Sequence to fold (490 residues):
Amino acid sequence: MMKVMQYMVLLVTAAVMIDLIAAAATTAEVEATITTTAVEVVVAEEGEAAADAVAKAGGGWRRLPVFEDQVLKKFPNRGMGRLLVQVDEEDKTPGFPVPVIRDLLTTRKDNHHQEARRLLSLQRTTEGLCVPAEDIWPCECSDNSGSVVITCIGVASAAMIDRALSPEYPNSNMTRLSSMYSALGHLHKEILHGKSFEELDLTSSSIDSVEEGAFSVCQERLTSLMLTTNSLNYFPFKELPLYPKLVTLSVGGNQLTSLDELVGLPELPLTVLYLGNNLISSLHPQVFYSVPHLSVLDLHKNNLTSLPPEVFTPLTELQILYLYKNNIKHLAAGSLWFTTPILRALDLRSNHLEVVESDVFRGVDYSTQVSLDYNKVEHMMEEVFSPLLSNVSTEYGWLSIMGMKLVCDCDVLWIISQPRYMDHLLFAVCTNHTSLSNLSEDELAEDCATDSPLEDDWYDEEEEAMKRRDNESEKKQETGYIKYGWWWLW
Fold:
């Protein structure tokens, strides 16, 4: 056998391999070995000549030169690689384009096998709905019963999106464009090249700017826009009325500072709005008037320091509200009033919260799960927290205060005297690390009746001792002065 110039890894069945060898026998000497992970075909003669010979021998095999160039760039130290793809002559459906890389599967290193399997699992392309795979690589096109998805994972620039969407597709109305873990940078106005999508998922793609109108071709069809974890410092909320079917918008994990463009907009169909992990420092009192259908609102990990009274009352269908990891130290009356009958989760964890005024909570119902974990509230006054606990303790709701240290004086007697309150108040601990559930209602009631709360006993005794020491010190100073004065006069 002539010197081996190159390995060709083909993902085919044994039967297809036999046909391939028979077809290529007259133009290239072929040796086939079936392994557990793939079929390795060792082609003799010059590498390119052998690949061309196999492609010309029949059986529907053809070269994918563009794909080959990309493979060679990606694996420059693994030998020359050539690609073949088999076309079914009956339905004109190309099979899997298979990268040919020397030693990729012969080595025993697990990472090589994983890379080989990833390369060998490339999407099939259906000639009726997608363009040839080599025309859009490294992106991929797949079709599932007419649902066309363009996937560009880990691409190096927006030019790869241009490459994938610039060809002429049979149908410009597609289902989904996904480009995660990429480095897209700026998205220009013609980035979609006239292709319309129902879903755009551009999560974690290092996008720093989007030209106005970049998604306008999707106006009549877009239902979900995901721009999470990018580098955007501005999003054109004012354009949302142009998207009458958009129900999910995710712009969390960016550098947005304001939502004021939402104020004054007509009613929008949005039901899910993710705004977490941005730099939003305040909310306009009317910011949510244009999004009354929100069921999920995520504002976690922003720079909020306060909440305008009744700011959430327009959200009549709200079910989940995330406000954790802001810097809300003070909740004023009306801050958490709700008109929704189905609020399920209210998360205010880790806000450095110190002061909660009366009449803060309204609309929290029997199934609401409320978290005030890791805040700095020390006194659970009855007039403040009774409306909240009385509602959540009716059925399935609860109030969690993990990490808060309560002053367990007479102000907690109203809680421990109601077993249902105790059942729905989670992780309640006093400043001396005693669990609220371990306090004796009778003892606390007795001490409160004599104006001597349990936890304040040590303080009263220490205070009395300090007073005695102060009095004794004053007497000593006075006596010394008299003696000193008498001696001086003498």
